[in-house]
Specification:
The structure is a homodimer. Chain A is an alpha+beta fold. Chain A is about 45% helix and about 10% strand. Chain A has a 3-stranded antiparallel β-sheet with strand order 1-3-2. In chain A, β2 and β3 form a beta hairpin. The two termini of chain A are about 35 Å apart. Chains A and B meet through α1, α2, β1, α3 and β2 of A and α1, α2, β1, α3 and β2 of B. Chain A binds a DNA duplex through α4.
DNA sequence: TGCATATATTATTATATTATTATATAAGCG
DNA sequence: CGCTTATATAATAATATAATAATATATGCA
């Protein structure tokens, strides 16, 4: 059972436009840093920093191909999360059935008083 | 199609232990602020700030019950995200089949030169 | 061996997030 | 109406994150 702190950390690491783009591209296959530099609007050191962060946190890894570092996805949670972010939700969740205004249902909270 | 900036914003808002706890509790049903104060290790103003943020971003909403504000989940993406965070993944993703070291497969990146 | 290429690291600055403290609002009750 | 309860807002201070600029490392090739 993951702690809430851990859950928050996971989301926090992914929650950056450049890192999301990196992960989305790695979903499609292996990429080296210069591939990213073509598609991502960020400086080389900046991309490198994002890659480093994702790697230290275990989301991605790389192998060496000559002087290229070829990155690939490691964490299976990533595609699942990206998929949810892609999904278009049409409706809001149903409003609670226990609205005290209409006096229908019961309010579930334990309230002091 | 959501932009990457938007995707990052969504994750960033959720990516906080207290906000995750709020959302997890709202998954189970409506709660008023004083319910949260019992379960969450944070001051009343702090909880209120997190609730305000989640509300301004459209993840939750509330109805009034006398002087209580009863919060409930609105955004259907939230339970999906929380579910992924709960999931235990046993294995890493399969390592790429196109490793140039073994000379099997082809490296998919468009590389200059 | 020395140069060019590919990528990383470090330091710095700018900006955003967070918790805390103090104060405000708003509703119901006596 | 004034008090109490429930909750929010605002100001501040502490901390974390991010981008930039400058520099370093490491590999292959001539």
């Amino acid at each position: 059972m993951r702690s809430r702190i851990k859950k928050a950390e996971i989301l926090k690491i992914i929650a950056h436009p450049v890192r999301i783009q990196i992960l989305e591209e790695l979903e499609k296959g292996v990429k080296c840093v210069s591939d990213f530099e073509e598609s991502i609007e960020a400086s080389q050191p900046n991309v490198s920093q994002h890659l480093g962060l994702l790697r230290r946190c275990g989301f991605i890894d790389y192998y060496m191909d000559g002087r290229l570092r070829c990155y690939f996805l490691v964490d299976p949670m990533v595609p699942d999360l990206l998929k949810i972010l892609r999904k278009e939700y049409k409706d809001s969740l149903p409003a609670p059935a226990c609205c005290p205004v209409t006096k229908k249902g019961t309010y579930p909270g334990n309230r002091r008083r």
